[in-house]
Amino acid sequence: MTKTISGIAASDGIATAKAYLLVQPDLSFESKNVSDIDKEVSKLKSALEVSDSELSTIRDKAAESLGEEEAQVFDAHKMILADPEFTGAVEQKIKDDSINAEQALDEVSKQFITIFESMTDNPYMQERAADVRDVSKRVMSHLLGVSLPNPALIDEEVIIVAEDLTPSDTAQLNKKFVKGFVTNIGGRTAHSAIMARSLEIPAIVGTNVVTSEVSEGQTLIIDGNDGDLIVDPSESDIQKYQKMAENFAAQKLEWEKLKNEATITADGKHFDVAANIGTPKDLDGVISNGAEGIGLYRTEFLYMDSAELPDEDSQFEAYKAVLEGMKGKPVVVRTMDIGGDKHLPYMPLPEEMNPFLGYRAIRISLDKQDIFRTQLRALLRASAFGTLRIMFPMIATVQEFKDAKAIFEEEKKNLISEGVEVSNDIQVGMMIEIPAAAVLADQFAKVVDFFSIGTNDLIQYTMAADRGNEHVSYLYQPYNPSILRLVKNVVDAAHKEGKWAGMCGEAAGDPIMVPLLLGMGLDEYSMSATSVLKVRSLMKKLDTNELKELSEKAINESLTNEENAKLVEEFMSNK
User: In a 3-state reduction of DSSP, which class is residue 283?
Assistant: First the structure.
């Protein structure tokens, strides 16, 4: 009997295939007291070595199929294996309690997971619980001599059904055979969802019930556009969704025709649709999707993917590669955004009650100026090879921006005096993430060259709701009039001073948000590369004159987040 299971649409696309239940093996074990401690420690070390080797292989595969940024998670997994705080604690427990390695690993990993999960005010550290769980499971499998599921071995077309997909699982998916996946848990920002979008396969997450409602081999239709899974579809269902899949494929082909076109609205206005990247390896996706620039180069990945602070020359090469690769198109580089949810193993940060509100981003750069100056010198040297724009993250006061800009000017002057070629046309701007900056945008607009709005932080700070906390996730409301009003204030302030305003948060590629932002006159939209052509196509259908009235209504008529979403959907239904 046909049934429909609904969840969160995490990655676009439609596919039909048999269900493949990704079942986890039995990792239960018997607790034992041991007399040969050395033998047990040796068994642990062997399991750690094999696990580390496996993770290296998986990481390389992920970098090849998904890109360097998505592969970063496996560096974190390898760091856990190399962390004496973790592995040393397991070894010490074997010695102190004379217990087998399985029991010691189980007890220590549970302690770490409990500690991380209790950090409700720190999403980054909460996410480390999943990493510890994933790594511990891998080590345990080798202690027990049990094989973990290997999605890389799938050799027929399937839709994967699972409680969740770990980063390790997702990195091994072969899109030739894996036509999509559905999970019980997760959200659009989960690792698995992000990787699905990189692979361009449909995905639905957060169904709560799919593993209990679907059996191995059942025919499934996954609709990643709307978040529906059809179980045991009728012949008419199959035909209906086949037609929808054909239409979607045709739509993608139409989008691809826009690859080399400028983004022009129906009333002839040009807007820039750019892409976000983490490393130079992400350039291929940017170019193949016809982005008009890079609106956010997250340079912290240069720091996070290194065993020590990257020096000036290595940074220069990374920045130069991107600027040259973009062939004159603008590249907006965000200076180091460490802290909050991003940590460096070689640069310990103070333990804080509220790290998202603490010592992070520009606050670290202004405090540790040697690190900041090194990055600025590398950027300035690279500026001769393309169109560079620099922005400072987490700016709260005008003085912070002025202080950062002054250091930039000092290093520019120093390099020129050393005879180094430096572009004389580098725009210097700032992220708008803090409500105080959005409110005072008119003052900031007098001193910056541009704004780029980071919606993820701006929303959570404005709503006083940690976006990683499931108990308040309902307050993550991008269409709330308070958020829209702040965005409009930023855009208007920029335009009044003859400056431009962009957005590099997730909302920039949101089909509900785009019409509202066009109505406000936002100049630049930066998003994941795979969303660029879809958004360009959407914009070509829209008339900004009509959208001004739509955005004014959304901002001023006391509508809720949900009502504003419906307002846009109804407007778009006539397009």
Answer: helix
Model pTM? 0.72
- Topology (CATH) of 3-24+150-254: Glucose Oxidase; domain 1 (3.50.30)
Instruction: Report which of 193, 190, 101 is spatially closest to residue 145, judged by C-alpha positions.
Output: 101
Active-site residue identified among 77, 142, 191, 495: 191
Catalytic residue among 343, 471, 495, 504: 504
Could you read off the pLDDT of 525-554 as tens digits, one per residue? 998 888 899 999 999 999 999 999 999 999
The DSSP call for residue 23 is: P
pLDDT of 69 strictly over 80? no
Name the CATH superfamily for 270-543. Phosphoenolpyruvate-binding domains (3.20.20.60)
CATH domain 37-144 topology: Enzyme I; Chain A, domain 2 (1.10.274)
CA–CA separation, 524 and 507 (whole Å): 12
Tell whether the model's pLDDT for residue 253 goes beyond 70: yes
pLDDT tens sequence across 98-135: 999 999 999 999 998 888 777 665 555 666 788 888 89
CB 283 within 8 A of CB 322: yes
Q: Where are the domains of the chain?
A: 3-24+150-254, 37-144, 270-543
Q: Is 504 a catalytic residue?
A: yes
Determine the average pLDDT of the residues in 174-203.
81
Cβ-based neighbours of 169, under 8 Å, separated by 6 or more: 22, 149, 151, 162, 192
Strand intervals (E) in 12-147: 14-21
Q: What is the 3-state secondary structure (H, E, C) of 85-123?
A: HHHHHHHHHHHHHCECHHHHHHHHHHHHHHHHHCCCCCH
